[in-house]
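Running co-folding for S-adenosylmethionine.
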Amino acid sequence: MLLFNHSFQQYNMPIEYSAHSFNYEDYFRRSAEFLGRHRWIFEQSNTKFVQAGILDALPRTWIEDFRRASNEELNQIPLARVNEAWCDDLNQFLRTMDGLLVEYERKCDGCGENSKMIRGISPKKLYEIQNLTSLIGEVCDRNETFLDFGSGLGYLSQSIHSVHQCRVLGLEGDRYRVQAALQRQMKLFPNSMKQVKYAQHFIEEDSFERIQESLKSEFLEESNPIPLAIVGLHACADLSITAIKMFLSNASISKLVIMPCCYHKLAFGSTDTTFKNFPLSDQLKDALEREPNFIGRPFLRLGCQQTSARWKTMTAEEHVSHGLAMFERSLMEAIIESDQRITKRKDTSSSNLLETYQLCDETGARLEWSDRHRKRLEELRNNYSEGGQLAEYLTCLQTCLQPICENLILLDRMCYIETEAQRRNICIRSKLVKFANDNLSPRCFVITAEKG
Ligand SMILES: C[S@@+](CC[C@H](N)C(=O)[O-])C[C@H]1O[C@@H](n2cnc3c(N)ncnc32)[C@H](O)[C@@H]1O
């Protein structure tokens, strides 16, 4: 057992982020170099790492250090605590990672609770709605008309109307959600019908004219609906970038307060190895050009994977069962043919791994497990007798890289806003704010921008 109380150390102070003074070029260059060097940790999806031989890429010395670490030490690794008893290159990995952590402006002040809002909403969601509503109040003016991008069931639209008494147009691509939002409004917020409207609209970069038409028809008897503010709670994948681009290109939109999510769902670009909206900034594009390409779906997925806030609280038993589940899932993927698929069976509690998965062909037709599958499974199990532990060490390293991947994704957007605003001669103030309660809501970043 290591005397980690004495030998654990944290080296660097996190870089403090401020949109105007942040050195994007330097950060992107250092992060891209670090992530490029350690891309083996995340380049494969977590169902494919056995097949891709990633467990063999784990340095033997790192495995030894992980194996000797107590549960508390394992939990502290993604917090960049180095240990002088560990091998130099693991400590170097942690120090470099530490030097790439960024501290964002934090916010945490739930706004006044509203019992109607609480019904059916989880504490996490309620926390996010309340804090976003409060942040919107700080950035925006209640005379603005709010466009709630991806309004879903209308949680944010109703909350900002209740708290700030403002006019809101919820725009949502899914017509069933629009109907559900209207029903919820009639039931819980009947007095808001004049001020809060919902429209089915799949928002794209050239949607602004259609949005203006919706504004005119929905708020017919009201005064001029501009200036406008775009807001959004969990504006997933490309939607938050569409919001950024629309904000930059239309003078009548004066504010933007958007919480992005689901980076891994970003749309592909012209090929299925590039993304339409990532990277956005020339600064990140330049930095990435110097490194081997590591930008793929697994990189984006890692950006929104579990954070160190959850990892640091895991018990030894939780690590064992998580590592084993991850290893077994990847093991099963490694024994099937390229034209076969597996799905987890819900109708069995068998302890036989093969019986817990259904094998299918490409058309979805069920197949039986063959002796060939059984033989491969046995070989791989023999090969990786500590597979579950190794899978958990790999997860630990992924958790170390998670904030850096997420930083690249978010800072690319911030850099793009800054540079694009300068290019268009628009004076803006932008911020990246993190809601502070990591335990309740570990991923909660909000991009804000104000013109003028
Ligand atoms: C993660 S949900 C968030 C819903 C809601 N804001 C909330 O937090 O409860 C994202 C919503 O955005 C909608 N959406 C995604 N892309 C969209 C687009 N381009 N235009 C309109 N709605 C979109 C989805 O249908 C979904 O309802």
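Result summary
The CA atoms of residues 110 and 130 lie 5 Å apart.
Residues 150-153, 155-156, 171-174, 177, 202-203, 233-234, 236, 239, 261 surround S-adenosylmethionine (CB under 6 Å).
Job closed.
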